[in-house]
Each structure stands twice: as structure tokens, then as C-alpha cells.
């Protein structure tokens, strides 16, 4: 593959996923990381791509589909119900990882009275607790990705790789009997580090995520302790998850 073909493919891929790590981009074009780094430098000079620490991102995404504010309007009543139900599962004074999903943000809204210690890469979650004296918040390192309100990249992965917490509360793009998936490959590496850091893993997903398989595999069902969802979740899949040893909490309508 010529340099021009590689660069075109890299730009097309970034236009689709918005941002990606160097390792991910290297796999896409079947080239070395150093080659991809040089290609990103060329693309950055063209103005459509920006290099980040450990990866690259598209400068002008084609849609607002993946922005935090746009995603947070989807199934908002269901997410609120899930947030309340999940918070009821959390004992006081726990150490928690909260990922950058919009459903997890709704969980965070109900946690202050539990006086937790929170570790997160979510800027909206961190901002939520700016004036909360009863909550200690540790924000990961990483590159700020404003549209998603998230910190990404190797520094974010490193933060969670060096942590040990009681519970990780996480969202997902899809949940099937084959496992959990998410839309952004660069977030997957961070979420896997979150899972490894936690004694217990809770996945919070609304009913639209059941049966859906997103682009990047995150974990197998065996890794999950609890799924919290809303009353619209398909009963047959809820039962199948329980038979596989996963606790499923169905939130009543908010």
C-alpha cells in the first residue's frame, strides 16, 4: 500500500470513528506505528486530522451523533431510572470507577450521599462533584476529547492500570450473550483497564443496547457481576443473563 493510499484510509477511518490510538490505526492499514505516526503528521498538515498523544482524531466530525450532550438525550427517562437503581446497589464509603458513558453520569447524580471515592475519565462526572465536599474525586490523566467529555489515550489507561477499587460502574454500546461491546475502540483499552482494577463490575445499559453488537469487544459476560437496565429490556435475554450467572437489576420506571 502506498503512502497516499494509507493516508486516505487513515483519514476515512478517523472520519468514521472520530479518534483512534496509534496501535489501532496501525492495524487498520497494516503498517508500523512509526509509519502511521509519519502519516498522521502529513495528514495534520492538510488540516483535517490532528495528532494527539498516542493517536489521532478527525478535526471536523461529520455529525453530532457521538457528542455527550446528544447521547444524553437518548432514553433519558430510562437512564434516570437506571441511575437510581444502580446507586441503591452501592454501599457507603466505597471506592468507585465511573466511566464516561451518559448512563453512568445518571448514576453519579445519586451517589453524593454515599460519600464515595471516585476515579473517572469523565469531565461531566468530575464537574458534577466540583462543589461536593463529601465526595473525593480523582480524575485520570489523558488527552481531553471535548465532544465526548472524556479523557483518552495512554495516560488515561495508565491511571486505571495503577488503581484498585471496590466497584467499576460502566456503560456499553451493546450487550449480547457473547459479551459487551462499545463503539469507540480507543475507549475500549481504557475500559478494560477499569475492569482489571475493580473487585466488582456493574454494567449500566438501557434496553436499546440489548442484542446490539458495537464495533469493539470490551469483555465477556464472565467478567460482569451485575447488569442494571430498565423495564424495556427483553425478558428472554434478562433470563438468559441470569442463567449465565449475571445478576440483572431491572429498574422501575422513573
Descriptive account of the structure:
The protein is of the alpha/beta class. 38% of the residues lie in helices and 25% in strands. The protein has ten helices and 15 strands. The strands form four sheets. Strands 6-5-4-9-12-14-15 form a seven-stranded parallel sheet, with helices on both faces. It has a three-stranded antiparallel sheet with strand order 1-3-2. Helix 6 (102-108) links the parallel strand 4 (95-98) and strand 5 (117-120).
What key attributes describe this structure?
254 residues; alpha/beta; 7-stranded parallel beta sheet; 15 strands
Strand segment count: 15
Elements, N to C (H/E)? HEHHEEHHEHEHEEEHEEEHEEEHE
Helical amount among residues, as a percent range?
25-40%
Form type: globular
| Count of alpha and pi helical runs | 10
Strand coverage percent: 15-25%
Low-confidence stretches: none
What is the residue-averaged pLDDT? Answer: 89
Strand order of the largest sheet: 6-5-4-9-12-14-15
Structural class: alpha/beta
Task: Describe the secondary-structure layout.
Elements lengths: L2 H15 L1 E3 H8 L3 H14 L2 E4 L2 E4 L9 H5 L3 H12 L7 E4 L3 H7 L8 E4 L2 H6 L7 E4 L3 E3 L4 E3 L1 H8 L3 E6 L3 E3 L2 E4 L2 H13 E7 L11 E4 L6 E5 L4 H9 L3 E5 L3
Parallel strand pairs: 4-5, 4-9, 5-6, 9-12, 12-14, 14-15
Antiparallel strand pairs: 1-3, 2-3, 7-8, 10-11, 11-13
Helix pairs in contact: 1-3, 2-3, 5-6, 8-9
Summarize the structure.
This protein has 254 residues and is an alpha/beta fold. It is built from ten helices and 15 strands.
